[in-house]
Design a protein that fits this description.
Number of helices: 15
Largest sheet: 3 strands, antiparallel
Distance between the termini: 25 Å
Structural class: mainly alpha
Shape: globular
Strand order of the largest sheet: 1-2-3
Order of helices and strands: EEEHHHHHHHHHHHHHHH
Number of strands: 3
């Protein structure tokens, strides 16, 4: 079944996604469509929402001066995962029509000099900047670059490594100090930040980071049970606290132990009658309300991972994941900047999560 979208300037519907069973696949035209969103904003300086602490008057300047790599797309983390998405799309679709533009903009932003300035920001009162959401996405970007068999990928991975190493060290310093997890549906959700960093650490063989994440996850989550999924979503959620935790823990626990844990933590997922209503958005010009489009995408990627490791009810979980994907994908390019500057990354992450794990 084709999943079509209408694009201005095309007389006929353009197929962006193709659905087979519970799988939704991105087409070349769909990839081109999504790529245009971060390409539009990755070198657009304003509007911009800064998250830094101004230690002195030297910060009273353009954000592009202290974020020369990641100043576009409204905020630092959205810029980072916009870069990640473009690398992922180039790897999936080497003949992407926007390929040359993507390469030029990646090369222009991710220079060694720009990354050195980015590294210098993470000190003093800004040592916790973007903890842990932006940290995790930065490591995902580095993982994509390091696994890209392309001269540009190798160069950019080398350039980005000092910042990735700093982020790894920051995780390893911070996590043992945490006495309680952060269980929210927005940026500071700890489980999501841990799973992004864990996947990077496994890929690159960062044993120190793997160890501290595993110990932290077990310390906070191993005894959890009865997560109140019915309380979700909150009005501004783009992550599911229950599902993000469940999607992290199959990475941490052995298979049989994970299945026992899941039965205690979210027993409803193992029932043939399991259902979950996608979140609805009433105003896509509102930067908080449009988060719920992202929630549907993040629920989908969690459910794909959980389904493959739950030991039961896989097809039902995959069907609920597909329902969430199909509820969100038509709204990724809504025409309003408050959603468009970040939702494409979530869409690509959700779509590619069908093939992983």
């Amino acid at each position: 079944m084709a999943f079509v979208c209408l694009e201005t300037g095309h007389a006929q519907p353009v197929v962006h996604y193709e659905t087979t069973g519970n799988r939704v696949a991105l087409t070349l035209m769909g990839a081109s469509h999504l790529a245009q969103l971060p390409l539009h904003c990755m070198q657009q300086p304003y509007p911009y929402k800064t998250g830094i602490v101004f230690e002195d008057a030297t910060f009273v300047r353009s954000p592009a001066d202290y974020h020369p790599a990641f100043y576009g797309c409204f905020d630092w983390h959205s810029s980072v995962h916009g870069h990640w998405m473009l690398v992922r799309l180039l790897k999936l679709f080497p003949n992407l029509p926007e390929g040359r533009e993507i390469r030029e903009k990646l090369a222009g932003n991710l220079t060694a000099e720009n990354i050195a300035v980015e590294v210098s920001l993470f000190r003093g009162l800004n040592s916790s900047f973007e903890r842990t959401y932006g940290w995790g996405w930065l490591l995902q970007l580095q993982a994509e670059l390091l696994s890209w068999n392309d001269p540009l990928g190798k160069l950019l991975g080398k350039n980005l490594q000092p910042l990735a190493s700093l982020i790894s060290e920051s995780y390893q310093s911070y996590l043992p100090k945490m006495n309680y997890p952060v269980r929210v549906g927005e940026h500071t959700n700890l489980a999501f930040g841990l799973r992004l960093a864990y996947d990077y650490a496994v890929q690159v063989g960062d044993s120190g980071l793997v160890d501290v994440i595993s110990k932290t996850a077990l310390r906070f989550y191993a005894e959890d049970k009865g997560c109140p999924l019915s309380w979700e979503p909150g009005g501004a959620d783009f992550l599911s606290p229950c599902l993000e935790e469940a999607d992290l823990m199959w990475r941490i626990l052995p298979a049989a132990a994970y299945q026992r844990w899941l039965k205690r933590f979210l027993p409803q997922l193992l029932k043939k009658s399991f259902s979950l209503e996608p979140g609805t958005v009433s105003d896509r010009t509102d930067g908080k309300l449009v988060h719920l489009d992202g929630l549907n995408l993040s629920r989908a990627w969690c459910l794909y991972g959980i389904a493959r490791h739950a030991g039961a009810n896989e097809q039902r979980l995959l069907g609920v994941a597909r329902t969430h994907l199909q509820a969100a994908l038509p709204h990724v390019a809504s025409g309003d900047y408050m959603g468009e500057h970040w939702l494409a990354s979530f869409a690509v992450y959700a779509l590619t999560s069908q093939e992983e794990n």
